[in-house]
Amino acid sequence: MARSYNFENIRNLLTEGFTDRQLRRFCFDTPHFRPVYDQFAQNSGQDEIVDHILDYAIRTLKVELLLAWAKRRNPARYREHQPYYGRRILLVDDNKDWCDQLGGLLQEREDGYEVVIAMSSQEAIQLIRSDIPYNLVILDMRLDESDKGNREGMSLGEWLRDNGYNMPIIIMSAHIMEPDTIKKMTLRPFQFVAVEKGKIGSGKDDDLLYQIELALS
Length: 217
Prior knowledge:
Blueprint: H1 7-17, H2 20-29, H3 34-37, H4 46-59, H5 63-73, H6 75-80, E1 88-92, H7 96-108, E2 114-118, H8 121-128, E3 136-140, H9 152-162, E4 169-173, H10 179-187, E5 191-194, H11 206-216
Parallel strand pairs: 1-2, 1-3, 3-4, 4-5
Helix pairs in contact: 2-4
């Protein structure tokens, strides 16, 4: 899938994640960026250094090399300032431990996803109504353990569609679904994925990860 760079985030990643000394050292130690190091004056400030590095990376098609270094040296800032457009996921589930587990798994993948977590339908709707666009919504069929009819997740998906939100939606469930329910989700359209929450990260989540990548491609 072709990638679109978020250069504002990349600039923030370099500015907040590294000192000017670290950035100088990167350019000195990396042969492809040595020409940039030669441009720095002794008194060049951090903003000027970042400008030179970004301009050179764009002109010489070395942005991926720069990002690989930044991700390796400061993975936390890399996750915070996701450098690609089109990778923002809203994950909706009332199980915080599971959200953190799946969110961490997605953010640590080589492709890198930006994951925002909502613990309820109400919180999800507030986030959706904000100015931040989401490229994919992943939600649990049962968003509240007291919801014995397993309807709240489905209702949230229907609300999104009824209010004109057309991003892909993946609905997960660890419970057996009635054929009519799955058919209805397919018609909306939603994508249904059966998930063993205890198996996330163990290699048994391949279908979910495949559906996520497919939805964002």
